[in-house]
Structure formats: C-alpha cells, structure tokens
Amino acid sequence: MPETTSTEPSGPAVADRAGRSRDAAAAVARFAAVPTVGPLAALLLACLFFSLSTDRFLTGGNLSLVVQQVMEVGTLAVGQTVVILTAGIDLSNGAVMAFGTIVMTRLAVGGDVPAPLAIVIGVVVCAAFGAVNGGLVTMARLPSFIVTLGTLNIAFALTHIYSHEQTVTGLPKALTALGETFPLGDTDVTYGSVVMLVLFAVAWYVLRFTAAGRHVYAVGDNPEAARLTGVSTRRLLITVYTVAGAVYGLAGLLLVGRTTVGDPQAGQTDNLDSITAVVLGGVSLFGGRGSIVGVLFGALIVGVIRNGLQLMGVASVYQVLITGILVILAVGVDRLARRRRQ
Amino acid sequence: MSPILEAHGLVKRYGHVTALDGADFELLPGEILAVIGDNGAGKSTLIKALSGALVPDEGRILLDGRPVHFHSPADARRAGIETVYQDLAVAPALDIAANLFLGREVRRKGVLGKVFRLLDTRRMQSEADAHMRDLKIGIGSMSQAVETLSGGQRQGVAVARSAAFARHVVIMDEPTAALGVKESGMVVDLIREVRERGLPVILISHDIPTVFDVADRIHIQRLGRRVAVVGPGDVDMAEAVAIMTGAAPGNTTRRD
C-alpha cells in the first residue's frame, strides 16, 4: 500500500532537487508496480481495438451486455481471488455453483419451498461445500488442488443425481429477478451486474481496509510468520473457503436470473474461467499478492474479447485461443516479477 | 534480585528421546542472558517451553514469581513474552507497519472501527515509525514492503515488533543465523538497544564470539540440563565450549 513517503526537508537545495527527481522516479516505479495497472491497460487496449474495428462495440447497450455476460464468472472470481490470495486454489467453484442453482430451483419449483427460502438454502449449501473444502485443507492438511478436485466431482455428481438430468423450468419470479434490467439513461442494466460490482466493492474493502483482509494476504505470503505473530490461520482459512462458497451460491442465483432455468449442465468450465480472470487480473497464483480490482478488469478483459470478436464475426474459438495466450503471458509476468524480487 | 522468568525441573520427552531432563532456568531483570549448547542439548526445546510453543511434561515456569502455564505462543504473548525467530518471521509483501501490527491491528475509533472494522492505518504507521526510531533502525517509510529491505533490516522489523509489544521478556532464537556478518552486527546492536529499554533478553545462539560480546550471563545447556551459568568475564570461550561439550564439568548441581 504505497501511499506516503515523507522525508524531512533538510540539506542544501541541490541535494533536495536530486532527492525530488529520485522521488519522482520512485513514484513512477511505484505506479507501474501497482498490480492493477497492467490489467487496466490491457482492458483499455482491448476496448480501444474493438472500438476502432467495429462501431457497434462502444455503445451503452453493448457494454452493459459485456458486463452481464461476465457476471457469474466475475462473481465466482471474487471467491476464487480470496482463496488464491491465501495460496490456495478452488477447482470446485463452478460445480458448487451449479449444485446451488439446482437446489434453489428444485426446492422452489417441485419442493413447495417459498422462493426466498429456497435461495437461502441454495446459498447455505454452497457455503457448506466451502466449509468442507476449508476444513479438509486445514484439518487434514491436504492440498487445496486435490481437495477441490474431489469436491468438484462430488458437487457435479450430486447436481446430476438431484436434478435427474432434467432442466428445471417455470421458475418463480424471485429466482429470476436479478436477470431483470433497469434503465440507466438510455441503457438497460441487469440487476445481476450491479450485484457483481457490489460484491467486488465489498471484497475490495475487506481485503484492503480490515485486519481480516491483511491476514488473508499474510497467510498467503508467509503462513508461518502469520501463525507466529498470532493470526489464527486455521480459522481464517476455513472462513475464507466458506465465504467463497456462499459467494458461489450468489453466482448461481445470478446464473439462474440470466438463463431463467436451473440447468444441471451449467458452469462446467467456469472454474477455469474464474481462474483465468484472477490470473489476468494480476493476482499471483503463489498467494499473497494482487488486487481484487485487477480481477474485475481480468473478468472484463475476457468478456470484452469474446464480445468484440463476436461483433467482428470472428469464430468463437479464436476468443479461446487469445485468452489462452493472455493467461500464459500474465503468469509469465508474475513469474518474472517474482524472480526480480528474490 | 529475584528472577523475572524462571523454570524448575523441566522435562520433555519425545518417545525414547528425552529433550529436557530436569532443566532449570533463570532470567534476571534487565539482563541479556545467552543460552548456548551443542546440538541436541535441548536449548530449542527449553525455549519452546518458555515461549509457549510446547508444553513440558514436568516442571514449573514462573513469570515474576507467579506460576504460568502456556499452551500456545499466544498465551506467552499475552503474558508479555515475545519471541523473535531465526527465519525472519515476516510477511514480505506487506509493508513495515502492517508487519509490526500483524495480528494486533489497531482499528479506528467509533462506528468505523466497531461496525466497519476499518483499520487505523495512519496511527499504525506513526506508531511503527516511533518504535523503529526508538530502536535506532533507520528506515525511510513505514509503507515500504518488507521485501524491499535487507535481511538485517527485516530482522530489525521483527525485533521492533517484539520490543514494541513485550512487557516482560524478549526471546531471540538464533536471530542472526540467517544473516551475514555486517547484518548480524546490526542485530546485535539492536539486542543491546532492547536491553537499554529495560527489557530482559534471552538470546539463543551458536555464535560464541557474539554471545561473549553481548551477554551479561551465559546459560550453558548440555544433555537436557543446565550445567553451568557463567559470566563472559569469568571464563574464556574455550572453557565455555569445553563445558558445552562435556570436556569440563559445569558449575551448577542438579536439583532433584
């Protein structure tokens, strides 16, 4: 958090001037080192490119669509970011979200449960999955990669068993409300997009301005140091995975809102897409470094490229190709920065 | 002068291995007490017992004359005993102030702090700055990431953290083991600064010359027991090493 550099104004004017230019150089270096600068630059470049290539890109309606298209993956990425900051990874988030959507929709449609209660139960089930992940990572000391690979399969199987492979339709209004839009000027904005942005804002506040957020970074940075200085690392990790699970449940609600059905096939590549957003956002997969604001840009980069190429009439596999190249570039940059620090 | 921290007859066994075999310990107010001993002599087990990292099987620990029972490092810390570890227990990506206050963050007063859990970053920065100045550690900005510091400066952050929060005792477990010669010298100066502030220091070290340079008294540990307590002026380094390795007898008798 580079904010203040106060040096006493002392010494002769020449030295002062030299100091000042050094300060300026340091300020530039600090600006470039802010983890969100790279992702923001990449996002703006992509926007610039598509604004010049197609005149339909830079319209309110289209930009609103871009945000709406990334709202589940963006929301999943909020949970994924916090997990990755603790030097973990969550492969289960897409499958957990899908299970959450099936729980919500089946309870509300066939189960005679009032829709709001069904939503709450769905979110709680997702949070419970997160708690299991966190419990296994901390108590059994298993690698998060393996734990969440296991819960990915469990959630996937439960989704298919509970749904009987049937898409749930005819949902009550409460379940699809977040897919509705409201007018902002002459642009229609989806409520779900706002929910995603609010989640990003809350996560940003907690990570940046509270002790809990600092502990998340510390645990990812040097877990032993965190433990020795009195951070309860176990409790913190279990909380992180559980809250991430609840966020995946909300992502499920957004998905239901957008698609207006409960689809057991949904979200199968969303785990990797959320990791893509996190990595493009400049968060280190080694933990402890990066900003959630960058992840929002990372999610939007994927959305913008997909949308822009669609508008240009380019086949969608090229979007996948470009995303793949960007991911490798982003990880490479992180690696380089890491090596330079050591 | 009555001891500030003392231990009597500490025993710790790991299966067949007896790491502590009735060890005694005494730290006097305002002193730097060095603990030396060969590998396997039980110094780190002794220190872990005193810092709450392990619970001894037998024996008593008294802080300021009152018996204490530590079940975790957090217990010892609450009792006013802080530990500096050899492996630079800092979070490199966090800034100096954040590291100093890690696990003890200060929140804003009123609703912002109570409800919104907002950290008082400015206050922590200025207090961190005051602590670092107090120990004469010259580092420009408290918002600098710890990874931009040298090894000695990083250990300086860890020492400042301990000195800032310790009320009774600072334990330093091989604080110079990971450092070069010049950096070690810096940390040794810091150890003296901590004593100047009235805090007694327990220094565990392999570095015999440093121990003789800085310590007021030297506790020599051998085969799980304290075999001698010497002043650096009373014996020379060769004699101390002889006691450490068992080539010469110690000067304390075992109390059973």
From TrEMBL, chain A:
Pfam families linked: BPD_transp_2
Entry's transmembrane regions: 27-52, 113-132, 144-163, 189-207, 236-257, 277-304, 311-333
CDD domains xrefs: TM_PBP1_transp_AraH_like (cd06579)
UniProt keyword Transport, yes or no: yes
Subcellular location: Cell membrane
Bilayer topology annotation: Multi-pass membrane protein
A Gene Ontology term for the protein's cellular component: plasma membrane
Keywords: Cell inner membrane, Cell membrane, Membrane, Transmembrane, Transmembrane helix, Transport
Protein name as annotated: ABC transporter permease
Organism: Actinoallomurus iriomotensis
UniProtKB/TrEMBL annotation, chain B:
PANTHER family tied to this protein: CARBOHYDRATE TRANSPORT ATP-BINDING PROTEIN MG119-RELATED, SUGAR ABC TRANSPORTER ATP-BINDING PROTEIN
Gene3D superfamilies for the chain: P-loop containing nucleotide triphosphate hydrolases
Species assigned in the record: Actinoallomurus iriomotensis
GO molecular function: ATP binding; ATP hydrolysis activity
Location of the ABC transporter domain: 5-248
Protein name from the UniProt record: ABC transporter ATP-binding protein
SMART domains reported in the protein's UniProt record: AAA
Species classification: Bacteria, Bacillati, Actinomycetota, Actinomycetes, Streptosporangiales
Keyword NAD: no
Keywords: ATP-binding, Nucleotide-binding
Domain of life of the organism encoding this protein: Bacteria
Name of a matching Pfam family: ABC_tran
SUPFAM superfamilies to which the protein is assigned, alphabetical: P-loop containing nucleoside triphosphate hydrolases
